[in-house]
Each structure stands twice: as C-alpha cells, then as structure tokens.
C-alpha cells in the first residue's frame, strides 16, 4: 500500500522483508484486490483518518486538514476499493460531495447508533479506529443524503424554519418579561406595534423596559425576513410536481408539502409504509422477552402480551410534527372525521385514534407520491 506522506502520518512498520503490496495479497489469490476500510473523525480544523485492511489491521493513521484538496489527495494516494465512513455532522454533506467520486462507497453513519464509541477511552484516533471497525463489520446505518434536484428547496425550507423558530423564541421572551412581573399577556395584543407603548408603561424599571424594547425591535426585524423566506420557499416548491400531488391531500397545505418534499427527497427511499412510519416517528416500539418455552418436547411461543414502549424517538422531528398536526386539524373535518369516529366506536382511545389517523395520512402521502396520482377520498379506508 503506497501513500503520500501527510501531516501526522504514522504508518505501521513492515514485518520482515516483504513489501506492503506482497503482504496485502498474501492471504488471497495472486494480485487479488482487497477491500480498504477508512474511518474518519471529522472536526472543524483537522480530520483524523484510520485505514484498516480486510483483516482489521491498521495500515495507516494520519491527520489531514479538513480541506477538500488535502482529503482528495489522501484518497488518491490509497489503492484498492476504498470504503469510507464518517459520522453525520455539520460538515457531512460537504465532505460527502467531496470524496464520493474518489472512493468505492461512502457511508455517512448515524452517531446516535454508534454505541461502541461510548465504550472505553475516547480520543480522535480511537473514534476513527472504531468507525473503521464498525464499517468493516457492516454494523453502520447510513444517513441519507439527497439529490441535487431538491437542494435549493432544502436550503429555503431550512431558512424559513430557522427564522420561524427565532420569531417564536423572541415572542416567548417578550411574554416572559411581563409574566415574571405578574402582568397577564393573554392573546397577541402584547406584540402589536400600536399597543407597544401601553405595554411598556406596565414595566416599572428602566432596565427591563429597555430590554423589552430591544426584543420588540428584534421582532420587527425578524417578521419581514420570515415573510421573504416563506415567499421564496413557496415559489421554489411550485417547481416540484411532488408538492402539487401532496397538496391534493386534505390538511397538506403548501408549507407542509414543501417540508415533506425537502426532507424526504424521494419516496422510493422507503419500500413500505412501516419504514416510513419509523422515519417519521410514528412507529410503535414493542418489548418482549422469553418468547418461547418447551411444551411436550416442542418449542412453542408463549401467549404473553407484547408490551409497548411508546413511539420511536430516533426520527425526523419536522415530519413527526407535520403529520401529527395534520391529524389533529383533520380530526374535525372531512374526510378524516368519519374515519376517526369509526375508530372511537370500535373502542379505541381518542389519543390512539389520532395516532392511527396520523399514520394513515403518512401512508396516503407515501402512496400518492410514489404512484404520482392525486388523492382520492374514496380510497381512504382502503389504504392500509
């Protein structure tokens, strides 16, 4: 294995007089090309890289600047089929685009599932080595990175979402100032510019009045920016046919439809509705142990009830909020209200009925998007 010396290189010593290339193929057929597994611990300034061979032996440890040219140079210095992994971080999308053309496979893994990294000592080289080991063992779950067709919509959705959150936080801070001094702030009158002076007079201290005035000023700056971001997002979403298809579903307005398309990117990521429910956060987590027993010399399954542990927590929060809010709003209107009433008449609790309706809307959205057809209310009860 040849490599270009880089910052922090620490190649392993050769054993005997055999070359690295000879040792690389010693356990396979002559000139057999073997897999190379690369784990990368990415940070803002530097990236620690550990390279393993097919037997799990470390053949290279190095550090490179977190820059495109340095990382590409490292990949080009390695030979053989290269399989690379690094965790989903701020730089993950950029790094994925940088190296995917120079390696055989790139897996951007979910850091929440890499429990092995929590065991034992922690350091950058240790983390990179563990990532390479997990990659070699096939134990990593990749994080999806979408196509370029929806990249503009993704950024505009993220901008609108960020400005909306900042606006809500500023409004909450304004109300918190008044509530902390025993002033009731029911409704939205406290935010209205025409009533601002009257509300500020209720604050006795000059310092707190100035703080509230600055928050009002911040709110006035955020509101027009939020409107601009919303207009740009909706204008971009109209270029996508999937958005127009999803809008045919009741309670799937332009903003929710844009959020779904920007987040999911393509419905073909999910083979079944149950996979989509898990991604959205509507999958029920079950728990069961000691499922089988011996009866008359035969292994039989116990007739014990399966315990539920609520909904899965490892999910996309944006989509979960969208589908649950759609079910909450749709429970009072057609065509979802009769469906919800039938569930309650069958003995289902109200909260479970709303959850079932949210799962139904998610399944309908997946089918409509996959098939490329508009929503048909007659088929609502047939969708399973």
List keywords for this structure.
384 residues; alpha/beta; Nucleotidyltransferase, domain 5; 3 domains; two-stranded antiparallel ribbon; 13% strand; globular; disordered N terminus
- Alpha carbon gap, first and last residue: 54 Å
- The tally of beta strands, per DSSP, is 9
Question: How many distinct helices?
Answer: 13
SSE ordering: HEEEHEHEHHHHHHHEEEEHHH
Fraction of residues in β-strands = 5-15%
Strand order of the largest sheet: 3-2-1-4-5
Average pLDDT, rounded to a whole number, is 86
Structural class: alpha/beta
Radius of gyration: 28 Å
Helix content: 40-55%
Oligomeric grouping of the chains: single chain
The stretches of 5 or more residues where confidence is low (pLDDT under 50) are: 1-8, 10-30
* Tally of domains: 3
Specify the biggest β-sheet. 5 strands, mixed
Descriptive report:
The protein is an alpha/beta fold. The protein folds into three domains: 20-137, 2-Layer Sandwich (Nucleotidyltransferase, domain 5), CATH 3.30.420; 150-237; 241-379, no CATH class. The chain has helices spanning 20-24, 68-77, 92-99, 124-137, 151-179, 196-200, 206-237, 241-246, 254-264, 273-280, 317-330, 336-345, 350-371; strands at 36-42, 46-52, 58-65, 82-87, 105-109, 284-287, 292-295, 298-301, 307-311. The strands form three sheets. The chain has a five-stranded mixed β-sheet with strand order 3-2-1-4-5. A two-stranded antiparallel sheet has the order 6-9. Strands 7-8 form a two-stranded antiparallel ribbon. It is globular, with a radius of gyration of 28 Å. 24% of the residues are buried.
């Amino acid at each position: 294995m040849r490599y270009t010396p880089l910052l922090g290189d620490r190649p392993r010593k050769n054993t005997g007089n055999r070359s690295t290339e000879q040792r690389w193929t010693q356990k396979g057929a002559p000139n057999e090309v073997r897999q190379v597994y690369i784990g990368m611990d990415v940070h803002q300034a530097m990236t620690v890289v550990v390279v393993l061979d097919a037997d799990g032996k470390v053949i290279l440890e190095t550090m490179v600047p977190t820059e495109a040219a340095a990382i590409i140079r490292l990949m080009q210095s390695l030979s053989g089929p290269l399989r690379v992994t690094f965790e989903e971080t701020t730089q993950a999308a950029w790094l994925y685009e940088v190296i995917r053309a120079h390696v055989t496979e790139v897996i951007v893994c979910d850091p929440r599932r890499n429990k092995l990294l929590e065991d034992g000592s922690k350091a950058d080289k240790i983390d990179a080595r563990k990532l390479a080991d997990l990659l070699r063992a096939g134990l990593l779950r990749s994080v999806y990175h979408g196509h370029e067709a929806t990249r503009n919509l993704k950024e505009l959705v993220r901008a609108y979402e960020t400005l909306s959150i900042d606006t809500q936080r500023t409004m909450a801070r304004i109300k918190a100032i008044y509530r902390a001094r025993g002033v009731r702030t029911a409704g939205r009158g406290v935010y209205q510019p025409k009533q601002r002076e009257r509300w500020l007079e209720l604050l006795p201290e000059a310092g707190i009045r100035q703080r509230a005035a600055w928050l009002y000023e911040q709110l006035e700056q955020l509101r027009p920016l939020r409107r601009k971001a919303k207009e740009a997002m909706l204008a971009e979403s109209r270029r996508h046919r999937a958005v127009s298809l999803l809008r045919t579903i009741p309670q799937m307005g332009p903003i929710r439809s844009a959020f779904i398309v920007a987040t999911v990117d393509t419905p073909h990521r999910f083979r079944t509705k149950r996979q989509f429910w898990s991604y959205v956060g509507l999958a029920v987590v079950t728990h069961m142990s000691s499922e089988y027993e011996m009866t008359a010399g035969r292994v039989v399954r116990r007739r014990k009830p399966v315990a539920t542990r609520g909904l899965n927590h490892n999910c996309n929060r944006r989509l979960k909020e969208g589908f649950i809010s759609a079910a909450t709003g749709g429970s009072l209107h057609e065509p979802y209200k009769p469906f919800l009433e039938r569930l309650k008449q069958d003995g289902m609790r109200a909260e479970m009925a709303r959850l079932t309706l949210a799962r139904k809307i998610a399944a309908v959205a997946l089918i409509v998007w996959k098939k490329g057809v508009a929503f048909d209310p007659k088929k609502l009860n047939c969708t399973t």
